[in-house]
């Protein structure tokens, strides 16, 4: 699966261990799109298509990719395998499902041996969104416009908390600071 037919070369590569991860991981793609960051989506499995997954990691940097986001569930080896074949930062997103409902994937992704880091995010949708935001933050280190967009995003988050605070306190008849 490849998304974004624009001629702009993708800066972030999102790799899914299975097409079944897409309903959750499209949140990452949507978040990157909001920041105008071109992203490519591929389905490659560390277990079912190991050669293709390795090839994807080995060629990512030369294609202009700056950050890899990898999502996998169960015995989630994909982020670690990709990380072992590239010097690009790899952000791992554990997928829920199976009898351990994501705890298996979380531990598989987070417990990397020293030498091969994988930045591990939360299980599921929160992790998908945060992986994209972290990728934007990494890209923003050398992109002033992206940094401004992140500052605006945080200001909007603050406003939404303030709105919630006011609504609940108004409902309870609690006024003042
Ligand atoms: C993992 O196994 C995938 O990342 C997915 O989360 C999980 C189940 O895959 P399917 O059986 O739905 O293809 O490799």
Structure characterization notes:
With 177 residues, this protein is an alpha/beta fold. It folds into 2 domains: 12-142, Rossmann fold (3-Layer(aba) Sandwich), CATH 3.40.50.1970; 145-177. The protein has 6 helices and 5 strands, in the order βαβαβαβαβαα. The protein has a 5-stranded parallel beta sheet with strand order 2-1-3-4-5. Helix 5 (125-140) crosses helix 6. The longest helix is centred in the C-terminal third of the chain and has 28 residues, at 144-171. It is globular and about 60 Å long. Mean pLDDT is 95; it is low at 1-6. 5-O-phosphono-beta-D-ribofuranose binds at residues 17-18, 20-21, 45, 72-74, 95, 97.
Layout of helices and strands, plus pairs?
Blueprint: E1 12-16, H1 22-34, E2 39-43, H2 50-60, E3 67-73, H3 78-83, E4 90-95, H4 103-110, E5 119-120, H5 125-140, H6 144-171
Parallel strand pairs: 1-2, 1-3, 3-4, 4-5
Bound molecules: 5-O-phosphono-beta-D-ribofuranose.
- Give the neighbour order of strands across the main sheet: 2-1-3-4-5
Query: Number of helix segments?
Result: 6
- Radius of gyration, in Å, reads 18 Å
Structural class: alpha/beta
Low-confidence stretches: 1-6
List keywords for this structure.
6 helices, binds 5-O-phosphono-beta-D-ribofuranose, Rossmann fold, about 45% helix, about 180 residues, 5-stranded parallel sheet, alpha/beta
